[in-house]
Design a protein that fits this description.
The chain is mainly alpha-helical and 183 residues long. It contains 8 helices and 5 strands; from the N terminus they run ααβββββαααααα. It is elongated and about 80 Å long.
Length: 183
């Protein structure tokens, strides 16, 4: 669960509503279309219409772990939850938060569980994935939201601009030389 949170940027409720039929191992995609309410076995539409999306399974490690987890479980039907309780329902928010608190206590980490989402977004942007794509992956209704929240992670393009245009004039395509008129 924590690996999925980190590598997909999903919201917790989206992963708690996830069923095995929502994972396409061949295409390496996770289909997000619902979210689990905080209490009980209540499922709702995603936070926004943009929340319905296919998220890429980027790492081979995550793909392997998902397959292993699926094969290890007693998967009786494709409609079963990826993270289910002993009764076959989706595990509760409370259980996830208790697990996270336990991990934090063992490791000395003091982070909010939503940090996984922020880390995923920051990683993608730092790797040069366009803001619009990161917005789509996160399920943001507007890429301006993604930009506003994660502008710090977007790599500067000054070096790329310099490399591509070094020595070129904005007035003409001819390289600037000492003999050129600079008026």
């Amino acid at each position: 669960l924590f690996m999925l949170l980190l590598e997909t940027g999903c919201r917790i409720g989206e992963l708690l509503a996830l069923r095995w039929s929502d994972i396409n191992f061949f295409k390496r995609e996770i289909y997000i279309h619902s979210t689990k309410a905080r209490d009980g076995q209540i499922f709702n539409d995603t936070k926004t219409a943009a929340g319905v999306r296919n998220i890429p399974i980027i790492s081979n490690s995550l793909l392997s772990r998902l397959k292993e987890y699926r094969d290890r479980g007693n998967l009786i039907r494709l409609q079963s939850f990826v993270f289910e309780n002993q009764n076959g329902g989706a595990i509760s928010y409370n259980r996830v938060f208790l697990m996270w608190q336990h991990v934090c206590k063992l490791t000395g980490i003091e982070k909010n569980i939503h940090t996984f989402r922020h880390t995923a977004a920051t990683f993608l942007l730092e790797k040069g994935i366009p803001t619009a794509e990161v917005s789509r992956i996160l399920g943001h209704a507007d890429s301006a939201t993604t930009y506003r929240m994660y502008v710090h992670a977007i790599p500067g393009y000054n070096q790329k601009i310099i490399e591509q245009l070094q020595g070129k004039s904005l007035i003409s395509d001819t390289p600037i030389t000492k003999a050129s008129n600079t008026k």
